[in-house]
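**Fold in tokens:**
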Amino acid sequence: MRWNLIPTVGAGLFSLVACTSPPSASPTTMSSEQRAGLADSVRAVADSVFAAGSRRDLDRMFSYYGANTTLLSDGKSDPWPSHQANARVFYGTLQNAEVKPLEYSVDVLSPTAAVWHGTYSYKLTDKTGKVLQGSAANTWVFSREPTGWRIVHVHISNPPPPAK
């Protein structure tokens, strides 16, 4: 099984509605309040991705990603269409998924770009009852599109295997 599918995981209708049109301020004129508001809206979208993944609602989860999202996992590129297809197969084998952020932060780069980076945990139970749990690091690059914030790049770093 490809466990690196876990991080493609979402409660923020507010964030999608409230963030439909980009602000007019440039990065150099953004106030701390504007920057904090943008960071909050990105956090809400990230929370929605984790929540949708935990519900195994892949249609909702993938709705937060851009059409041309790029993905690097442990230094390897994974084409987005094949990643989505593999995730659908993988999530079909699960009876339960719990995916949640642990420690993270959001850096607002401009009114239309932000980076979410941190760690998350997962506990996955397949249909035979086998449980896999662990944690990994994740970086999402967000772009503010006319429809709201979208994840346009994903970088996943899984912990190294235990020493033998």
Observations:
- Residues 1-21, 23-27 have pLDDT under 50 and may be disordered.
- The domain at 8-22+29-157 is CATH 3.10.450.50 (Nuclear Transport Factor 2; Chain: A,).
- Helices lie at 13-18, 32-54, 58-62, 80-92.
- The beta strands are 65-73, 76-77, 94-110, 113-126, 131-145, 148-157.
